[in-house]
Structure formats: C-alpha cells, structure tokens
Amino acid sequence: MKFDAPLVPGRLIQRYKRFLADVAMDGGGTITAHCPNTGSMLGCAEPGSRVWLTHAPSPTRKYAYGWELTQLAAGPCVGINTHRSNALVREAVAHGRIAALEGYETIRPEVKYGRESSRADFLFQGTGRPDCYVEVKNVTAAVTDGIALFPDAVSARGTKHLREMKAMVADGHRAVLVFCVQRSDVTEVRPADAIDTVYGRTLREALTAGVEAIAWRAEVEPEEIELRTEIPVRCP
Questions:
Q1: Could you read off the pLDDT of 5-61 as tens digits, one per residue?
Q2: Would you say 203 and 235 are in contact if contact means Cβ atoms under 8 Å apart?
C-alpha cells in the first residue's frame, strides 16, 4: 500500500485525549494531528519520537494532519493507523500472499453477523466451502525478544469478537483471526495476558474450539506499508 502523497515528518510532543497529538514539524511550527488509534499505543507514543503524518486539508476535516507512523528508538517504523489494517490484509489477499484465505470467490466487507450484533471485517464465500468470517486486529505493541502483543489495552470489543467467531465455528462456519502486525522487528504474536487477562483466556478458548489465528508482519516505510511475512501466533 503506497501512500497517496508524501508523508510529512515531525517530532511528537504529546498524545492526549486518545485522538489528538501535538507535533513539532520539521519545517517549523507546531500542529495538532488526528490520532487514528484507540489503544494505549504502548511504546509507540513516546514524546520526542520521529513521526510521519498525512496532510489532507478539507473543509469537512477538523484536523488536516493525521498521524501514520512512529519511528522507534531502535530504528524501525511502526504503522499506528488502525484504519489501514483491513486494507493491508485485503491487498495481501489480492496478491495471493495469504494462503489461508485463498480460493474464495467473493469477499464482502463489514458484514453483520453473530449473536451480539457484531460486524465481521470480511466475509469470504466460495462454492462448496463454508462461509469464512474474518476479523482483523492491528498490532503495534511489542516487548523484548521479538514478541508482539495484542491487545495493548483492555479490549472488551476484541473479546466479544472472539466469542462471535467461536459461535460461528460451532454453527459449521469457518472463522479466522488475522493479526496485522505493522512493524518489522518482531517474530511472533502472543496475547497480552498482563494487559487483558480476559482476552487472553478467551483467545485460547476460541482456538481450542476451532477458530484459526494467523499473523502477518509488514514492512513499514514512509513511502509504503506492505504485509510480506507470516509469523506464528503463540499462546504459551
């Protein structure tokens, strides 16, 4: 996924009120940007960090700038825009990279399903195959030893989705959880049990019940983000 226009660099001053960030621009001045991430952004919102922003002024937008990337102290960039993850997965499927999701004839986004009034990110359908409900989760948090973690904050919504997927499998369908890892410095994904114990427990229950979980790691650059490498999901 290439960005429509060059990203604008700056230095993060602070993130606040979840959806706002003050940034000192490389060209001078300070702006307030929209932060398209509802999580804690653990390790990705340190004051002074190098960041890249989109710039799309419009009379219908309150903030012309949007936060897209953070460069970690160790070097690699992290894609913090959770709204990119579905498009990244869809692009990877279109290019035949994700074998677990190949062979379906139609892909429908944002499909209502389940017993708790949810929406699947995608519904994959094909002749002679069970419907496949796909949930995509954006992963940005990590700890030492190359371990990526999800979620980075308590996620009642994420736990609800696991329950819904488990029910779909019980009804004879297929359900696949896709962790979209927008950073290149990790080698596996694990549930963040210390952050959300309920999510970790529910994930293990869902996997035991037949829900599938896969993770794909992206190469993240100021010009482009692309899912390239499958990495394991582990629940020790």
A1: 999 999 999 999 999 999 999 989 999 999 999 999 999 999 999 999 999 988 888
A2: yes
Q: Is residue 214 part of a domain?
A: yes
CATH number of the domain that residue 25 is part of: 2.40.50.580
Compute the distance between CA of residue 124 and CA of residue 233 in angstroms, rounded to an integer: 22
Residues 120 and 225 placed together within one structural domain of the fold: yes
| DSSP labels, the chain | -B-SS--EEEEEEEEETTTEEEEEETTSSEEEEE----S--TTT--TT-EEEEEE---TT-S-SEEEEEEE-TTS-EEE--GGGHHHHHHHHHHTT--GGG-S-SEEEEEEEETTTTEEEEEEEE-TTS--EEEEEEEE-EEEGGGEEEE-SS--HHHHHHHHHHHHHHHTT-EEEEEEEE--SS-SEEEE-TTT-HHHHHHHHHHHHTT-EEEEEEEEE-SSBEEEEEEE-B---
Asked whether residue 1 is assigned to any structural domain, the reply reads no
**pTM for the predicted model, two decimal places:** 0.95
How many independent structural domains does the chain possess? 2
Q: Which of 25, 49, 79 is the last residue of a domain?
A: 79
152 shares a domain with 172 = yes
Indicate whether 180 pLDDT > 90: yes
> Do 32 and 104 fall into the same domain?
no
The pLDDT of residue 211 is: 98
Tell me if 50 is assigned to some domain. yes
Print the domain residue range for 69: 8-79
